[in-house]
Predict the structure.
Amino acid sequence: MVNGSTRSEHTCPGEISKTRRLAEAAQAVIESVDGFAVDFLDLSTLADEPWKVIHPCKACVSTTMPLCHWPCSCYPNHALGQTNDWMAEIYPRWTAAHGVMLVCPVHWYRHRPASSS
């Protein structure tokens, strides 16, 4: 299960995101079924832990399939200072999964200024 919200009790003091709460509720339900386990990947730690980084995909496969390797061979790229990519740790977890649930926020609120008459 992947929690895609960047908000945590560390980035927004005392407040856990609704997305995280929903993901934790889903985790409890899934783990209540015999034979099921959940590996909870919490992406909010990217905001909490500045040394934890996921570098962007360079989309090698869109140029030519043989350039793209699994797991990604683009990193580390010392010339650009792109090292210690957290994806190197995530790839084995991702490939071991029998199913993936992505839980992410949808930021929809928009403030409309009061109309002048």
